[in-house]
Write a structure and sequence with these properties.
globular, seven-stranded mixed β-sheet, single chain
Length: 517
């Protein structure tokens, strides 16, 4: 243990999500001592647009921080954030937002996405930034402002992601963005941790309007006095920057070496794998896999993503499970746990293409649409629920295969976090589909734990991330594939792989006719 240990020392991680803000406090052994959560409502101005109210978002951050501070009597050594990526908000010099936060799933940037595809070589941009073309990236959102709201672009002092916006409001310093977050903008150089001037010139974006990239372990300062006093925080509490939520989740899962994968099933379903080195090659690009810096400062990671993971399950719940929601409200039980528990007990011969908001990796198709295939009159809601779970598993198996094939790795263990890690039945389904062991952790808040670990390393309590993980990350249970189920799923997975290619043309025709952009 480091010499500075104290049984009273506590580290806070704030998880800045799209659907919620959560704050957790951990001690140096990784035990969760405090927790607070606030729901966040999306602002949906019209079809295809998705935003967050930045002032309301900040209020939720403050509320969770005030809650956990009270639970810990203010004895918090550091605060670090785990943040959603790609989202952007323009601010003035005082940090006041000039527009809502445009989030990842917003589709207004299809025009900018097409600009890159039609006028620039994707391989060249990938070599420069580690990112292939996709509509989700921050660069496209800022380009949208230039084209559609030039008044806001000119008025804006900075275009912040959620991380740098919140940390700036907490400290008044910066704004700063860490390398892992900046690596998700399509503007950071893959060779050096600085903004790529060539990409910025193409996009027409001034570097002066972006936050300064620094390490995730950078200590930004202390909480502003006017906020600190109201929260009851210690004067010595330091704010450490933190990182991209998926990368923080990987740290909080102990995934900092090749051969392991973190599967985070939240609003999106994301797999993060540590690369055996800095890899920029065409196999990665063909599978739409990025290469960017890990929060540990020494490794590079890639991320495969189904942007419709938990989002699809939430849509299914809201659309088809009103009776179950009412029952769970009366019995005070978790609706998702109940729905999963009550689904059919055998693999479905129904398939669901879960592309409500297009497809992420490995195909990157914002025009793909959702579909249900294989329905018969004998099928029940339980069968359809099983099909939803199975198909979400198939979608991530596509990504697992893409990671292995592109990087030359053999993934031996998967660490599962997020809402999907709460249900033993779904964990077993995924283990059977992946044909890999799946391990869950003592804490269900791995992203917050990863941020807390970053704070503990940044303030010098631990020498490095390896030491911090050894003391703070604790596996709880492992799910082993059932050979009989593995065989059943192998047949169905081969069928599932044919669905997207078969529906691609008709989906594009429908999307082109109904798209607002």
């Amino acid at each position: 243990f480091p010499t500075r240990r104290s049984s009273d020392l506590m580290f806070c991680g704030i998880d800045l999500g799209t659907s919620s803000v959560k704050a957790s406090v951990f001690d140096e052994h990784g035990r969760q001592l405090a927790f607070s959560r606030r729901e966040i409502d999306l602002v949906l101005p019209q079809t295809g647009l998705a935003e967050l109210d930045p002032e309301n978002y900040l209020v939720k951050v403050y509320e969770t921080l005030r809650d956990v501070s009270a639970q810990c009597h203010g004895n918090i050594a550091s605060i670090a954030v785990s943040s959603q990526a790609q989202a952007v908000v323009p601010i003035d010099r005082r940090g006041n937002p000039l527009y809502n936060i445009i989030v990842t799933m917003d589709n207004r940037t299809l025009r900018q996405y097409r600009f890159w595809k039609e006028h620039h070589d994707e391989w060249e941009i990938y070599k420069r930034t580690g990112n292939g073309f996709a509509s989700i990236y921050t660069v496209n959102k800022i380009m949208w402002f230039i084209e559609n709201r030039p008044d806001i672009y000119e008025q804006a002092w900075k275009f912040c992601c959620v991380q740098d916006y919140v940390v700036f409001k907490l400290t008044g310093e910066g704004p700063f963005i860490d390398y892992s977050m900046a690596g998700r903008t399509m503007m950071l150089s893959s060779e050096r941790p600085e903004w790529d001037s060539g990409v910025l010139d193409i996009a027409g974006i001034s570097k002066d309007k972006l936050s300064e990239p620094v390490r995730s372990t950078a200590t930004i300062g202390r909480v502003r006095e006017d906020i600190r006093a109201g929260f009851g925080l210690s004067r010595t509490c330091q704010v450490v920057l933190g990182g991209h939520d998926q990368a923080c989740g990987a740290v909080g899962s102990g995934v900092i070496t090749p051969g392991m994968v973190m599967d985070a099933c939240g609003t999106v379903d994301a797999m993060v794998s540590v690369l055996p080195g800095f890899i920029i090659d065409r196999a990665m690009l063909d599978n739409k896999l990025p290469c960017y810096r890990h929060v540990d400062g020494t490794n590079y990671i890639t991320m495969a993503i189904n942007t419709n993971g938990g989002l699809f399950l939430k849509w299914y719940k809201n659309t088809f499970c009103h009776e179950e929601s009412q029952l769970c409200g009366e019995q005070n039980c978790d609706i998702y746990t109940y729905i999963i528990k009550e689904c059919a007990n055998t693999p479905a011969d129904i398939y669901v293409l879960p592309h409500l908001e297009g497809a992420g990796t490995p195909v990157n198709d914002p025009l793909s649409l959702g579909a249900v295939i294989g329905l018969r009159v004998t099928h029940t809601k339980k069968d359809i629920t099983r099909a939803v779970l199975d198909s979400l598993g198939y979608e991530m198996k596509l990504n697992l295969s893409a990671i292995e094939q592109s990087t030359g790795q053999s993934i031996e263990e998967i660490r599962m976090i997020g809402g999907g890690a709460k249900s033993p039945k779904w964990l077993q389904i995924k283990a059977d589909i992946f044909n890999r062991s799946i391990t869950v952790l003592e804490t269900q808040e791995a992203a917050s734990l990863g941020a807390a670990i970053t704070g503990a390393v940044g303030t010098g309590y631990f020498e490095d991330f390896g030491q911090a993980i050894q003391h703070m990350v604790h596996p709880k249970e492992t799910y082993i594939p059932n050979p009989a189920m593995v065989k059943e799923y192998e047949t169905r997975f081969e069928e599932y792989k044919r669905i997207y290619p078969g529906l691609k043309d008709i989906s594009h025709r429908i999307s082109s006719r109904t798209s607002i952009y």
